[in-house]
Amino acid sequence: MLQQSKISIFSEAYSKDPYKFFSYFRTQEPVFYEESIDCYFVSNYEDVKYVLENEEIFTTKMLAKRAQPVMRDRVLAQMTGKEHKEKKKMIMKGLTGENLKRLLSLFKQNAIEVLNPYLNRGKIDLVNDFGKIFAVQSTMDMLGLDKKDQEQIAEWHKGIAKFITSFNLSDEEIEYCFWCSEQLEKYLLPIIESKKDSSGNDLISILKSSEFNGIKMTSQELLALTLNILLAATEPVDKTLALLFYNLLQNPKQFEDVKNNCKLLKNAINETLRFKPPVQFIPRQVSREVTIKGVLIPKNAVIINMIGAANRDPKAFSNPDKFDIYRSFEDNKAFTSHSQNLAFGYGTHTCVGASLALMQLELVANIILNSFKNIELDESFSYEEKGLYTRGPVSLVLKFT
Length: 401
Ligand code: HEM
Ligand code: 2IO
Description:
The chain is an alpha+beta fold. The chain contains 16 helices and 14 strands. The longest helix is centred in the middle third of the chain and has 32 residues, at about 220-250. The radius of gyration is 21 Å and the shape is globular. Bound molecules: protoporphyrin IX containing FE and (3S,6S)-3,6-bis(2-methylpropyl)piperazine-2,5-dione. The site of protoporphyrin IX containing FE (HEM) has 22 residues, from helix 6, helix 12 and helix 16.
């Protein structure tokens, strides 16, 4: 019988600062059972890696309940084997080569346009005035959607994100999430149906013209993958960008070094993703009884991988609680390859948009650094992060000259 811990991820203290709890979880309760939601939380780097690389034991079946009701059909993470490989390839086609070049140029335009009105104001909220708008616009470019509808899309996107990344929603909240999903369906289905096969380079057109086993996808299947990209490419962007600037502002020497050598931005982005990953949880469902660190996990139980805790495991990263853009990413005491941080996941379902996201973040951070000088936190601003599953700053008010 598992002893119920007094600690809960639903406590106010955890929600305020989960990072304070990670060492306790890793060392005292490496498989932590959260009774109220009947889930097992895994926090050691080696265990998270083991779970994510064994997809036969640790499946994504729980997404049928956690994602499918608002995604309206299966998302990429629910697929396995040949289907997963081929559909992932279709998505990759829309994000690489000439399409990558086209997207980066659109991202640049988006960033400049959104930042422009703030240039003479000396003040900007990097989350609410910039990041959220930039993220939705850029995802709409990937999908080939008309950006005139961005505000509407952003609002409905919040509803599906809430459903997938929450625990214990009320019936009213669930109803609202479903309503958002229905609005997105009503909006997107006619667009998906009107796109002419092989007429465009956007992801919807590419997916529509591709075949799996000689058969084209149905509109419903295309809708689910469209919603998958909408959520996956939008949700982490404003969070990562704000965390990057916050971490740099908290570490002025490192910020100076980045400003003097823009090649260091890549390191700063990678270190931000390790130090404070915007996607904190990756759930899996066990296909058979399994034991981790001596704890028996019953068949069909849901395991939640704690990415934030794994990324600060001292067995994988030296001095893990220090934000250090100079840490060698090869520096890994316990593992033979290299210590890859787990912000983009690991194994078969590793993020398909990872390299695009890194380029997008580098591009936009460079634009911000070139547009604003003497960036500081506004003195009236108090910093707060929010979210258990996805997590990031509520706002980040910067002043600059
Ligand atoms: C999967 C994080 C950006 C599309 C994932 C997973 C994580 C993640 C943790 C693994 C899920 C799992 O194993 O169940 C992030 C972060 C991002 C980011 C931190 C930005 C900083 C993007 C972008 C795209 C994208 C820009 C757009 C194309 C996807 C898709 C999957 C995925 C489609 C599912 C992959 C699969 O099941 O094979 N992402 N992501 N992500 N991500 Fe991202
Ligand atoms: C959409 C949770 C922001 C994904 C998800 C049901 C599947 C998958 C992830 C990421 C990030 C989002 N899981 N993206 O964790 O596609």
